[in-house]
């Protein structure tokens, strides 16, 4: 009988390069049984590459992974799953046409006589799993009809059903409500008591200090350090992640409010929100706050022409306008950056240049021909203005860090010269250093006279960036607060009272 190793998982001197570019260099990670081990670092720090090696998607160029004291066969997904390593991906991996239960047990279905599928048994097991998570999703519902938050809960149930010994959770709460987060944390604590280890990846500091036992930081593909959550504080952790101190997470700026840019009067969309009224001024950042389902994104979609209102009026610079399509919004000077940049913001397989200029191709055509030099010049200028870090304009956007992807999306919107910019969750899934860059960019937009609506689920972000805060609850407007009136307590009070 072999002696039990101190660590369930031990990674030593792991290195990996792609096309000659070093993604990881001599990285180490040691995870004990029954602990929550947070893995932190800026986008591009190497977290995803390391996790993909743990689950067998990539084989390392050098180094070793040991699981329960034995060397793990790398580059083999089946081997990792068999040994008990499961991962909940930030990007939902589901089969849309199959039911919730079928997705949970895909490849591990219950079978009756003659090998026939026993859906009834699978549904019963799926119901028990989801009941543990405190959610009442109908297991017979096809996945395509679920919200992002519900899909995330199904992914968590799938990992638990595998009897995994290590579960990797990549930004697991990015689309969850407070109630669902509380349920997830309860499940994590129960898993810990059973000896299951959790590798927890998140940019949300409050979550890390609430749930993590140990924290490891990577920077630029290299190991920086490991400490207990009790030893580290927020300031130290940020310094480890970005390599420098950031004294103020929100850059100071003075916004000079100008003329009215947008006015919304009794705007409604049946079943989504009702009687929303506010003004937005040039040079102002208007924060939009509320809990999940409050109607924030739904209002943005109406203002940018993706959905149609069922009542109310919209005025741009004092003139009543009718926004029936995104083209109408652009013609009225309204630009929109979606909360889901990968689905609605850019085309992954296209280059930085092609994504930036996608919405303004008419400006770079002569007759039926595209003027490459004109397109190249505009893309290069935007990349320089927004400080987009890429090997060049030909690099595919999907290979950039989250912060740089977001800058590409913003650059595409800015090329249309909007006077009003709506930013929906502009820093979701972005590390603390990249957030600071996005905040500076928002301030630059406001300083240039652009009117900004910023939707965010992070109250410190709302408070740190907004001149005024519009609070919503269950599709109703409950408050419009000045900077002086807005506090976390005040915003939460109005967000919970429709």
Describe the structure.
A hairpin with a 2-residue loop joins strand 17 and strand 18 (369-370). With 498 residues, the chain is α/β, with parallel strands linked by helices. A 6-stranded mixed beta sheet has the order 6-7-8-3-9-10, sandwiched between helices. It has a 6-stranded mixed beta sheet with strand order 16-19-20-13-21-22, sandwiched between helices. Strands 2-1-4-5 form a 4-stranded antiparallel beta sheet, covered by helices on one side. It is built from 17 helices and 22 strands. The radius of gyration is 24 Å and the shape is globular. The mean pLDDT is 86. The N and C termini lie far apart (62 Å). Helix 14 runs parallel beside helix 15.
| Strand-pairing-aware structural class | alpha/beta
Largest beta sheet: what is the strand line-up? 6-7-8-3-9-10
Radius of gyration: 24 Å
Secondary structure: helix percent: 25-40%
How many runs of DSSP E, i.e. beta strands? 22
Mean pLDDT: 86
Q: Describe the largest sheet.
A: 6 strands, mixed
Number of helices: 17
Unreliable stretches (pLDDT < 50, length at least 5) are none
Query: End-to-end distance, in Å?
Result: 62 Å
Quick one: overall form?
globular
Strand content: 25-35%
Sequence-ordered SSE layout with sheet pairings:
Elements: E1 9-18, E2 21-31, E3 36-40, H1 47-54, E4 62-67, E5 70-71, H2 77-83, E6 85-88, H3 100-104, H4 119-132, H5 148-161, E7 166-170, H6 178-193, E8 197-201, H7 205-211, E9 214-219, E10 222-228, H8 234-242, E11 260-269, E12 273-281, E13 285-289, H9 296-303, E14 311-316, E15 319-321, H10 326-331, E16 334-337, H11 341-345, H12 352-356, E17 365-366, E18 369-370, H13 372-385, H14 402-414, E19 420-424, H15 432-447, E20 451-455, H16 459-465, E21 468-473, E22 476-482, H17 488-495
Parallel strand pairs: 3-8, 3-9, 6-7, 7-8, 13-20, 13-21, 16-19, 19-20
Antiparallel strand pairs: 1-2, 1-4, 4-5, 9-10, 11-12, 11-14, 14-15, 17-18, 21-22
Helix pairs in contact: 14-15
């Amino acid at each position: 009988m072999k002696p039990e190793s101190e660590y369930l998982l031990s990674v030593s001197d792991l290195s990996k390069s792609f096309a000659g570019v070093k993604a990881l260099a001599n990285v180490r990670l040691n995870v004990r049984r029954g602990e929550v081990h947070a893995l932190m670092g800026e986008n591009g720090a190497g977290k995803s590459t390391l996790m993909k090696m743990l689950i067998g998607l990539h084989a390392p160029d050098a180094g070793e992974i040991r699981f329960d004291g034995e060397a793990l066969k790398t580059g083999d997904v089946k081997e990792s799953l068999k040994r008990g390593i499961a991962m909940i991906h930030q990007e939902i991996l589901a089969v849309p046409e199959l039911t919730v239960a079928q997705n949970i047990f895909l490849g591990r279905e219950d079978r009756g006589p003659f090998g026939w599928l026993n859906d009834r048994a699978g549904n019963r097991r799926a119901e028990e799993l989801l009941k543990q998570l405190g959610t009442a999703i109908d297991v017979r519902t096809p996945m395509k009809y679920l919200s992002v938050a519900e899909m995330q809960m199904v992914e968590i149930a799938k990992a638990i059903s595998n009897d995994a010994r290590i579960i990797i959770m990549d930004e697991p709460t990015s689309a969850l409500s407070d109630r669902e987060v509380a349920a997830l944390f309860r499940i994590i604590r129960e898993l810990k008591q059973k000896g299951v280890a959790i590798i927890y990846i998140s940019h949300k500091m409050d979550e890390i200090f609430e749930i993590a036992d140990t924290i490891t930081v990577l920077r630029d593909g290299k190991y920086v350090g490991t400490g207990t959550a009790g030893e580290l504080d927020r300031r130290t952790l940020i310094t480890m992640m970005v390599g420098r101190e950031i004294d103020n997470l929100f850059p100071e700026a003075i916004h000079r409010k100008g003329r009215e840019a947008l006015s919304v009067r009794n705007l409604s969309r049946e079943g989504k929100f009702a009687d929303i009224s506010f003004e937005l001024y040039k040079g102002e950042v208007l924060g939009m706050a509320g809990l999940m389902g409050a109607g924030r994104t739904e209002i943005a979609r109406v203002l940018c022409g993706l959905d149609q209102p069922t009542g109310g009026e919209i005025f741009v610079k004092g003139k009543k306008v009718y926004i029936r399509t995104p083209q109408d919004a652009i013609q009225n000077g309204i630009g929109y950056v979606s909360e889901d940049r990968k689905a609605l913001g850019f085309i992954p397989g296209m280059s930085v240049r092609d994504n930036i200029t996608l919405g303004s191709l008419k400006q770079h055509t002569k007759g039926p021909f595209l003027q490459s030099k004109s397109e190249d010049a505009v893309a290069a200028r935007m990349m320089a203005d927004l400080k987009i870090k890429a090997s060049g304009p030909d690099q595919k956007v999907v290979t950039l860090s989250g912060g740089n992807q977001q800058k590409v999306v913003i650059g595409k919107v800015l090329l249309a010269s909007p006077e009003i910019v709506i930013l929906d969750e502009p820093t979701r899934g972005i590390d603390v250093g990249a957030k600071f860059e996005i905040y500076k960019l928002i301030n630059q937009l406001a300083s240039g006279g652009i009117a900004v609506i910023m939707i965010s689920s992070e109250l410190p972000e709302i408070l740190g960036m907004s001149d005024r805060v519009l609070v919503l609850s269950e599709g109703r407007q409950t408050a419009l607060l000045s900077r002086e009136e807005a506090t976390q307590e005040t915003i939460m009070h109005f967000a919970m009272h429709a």
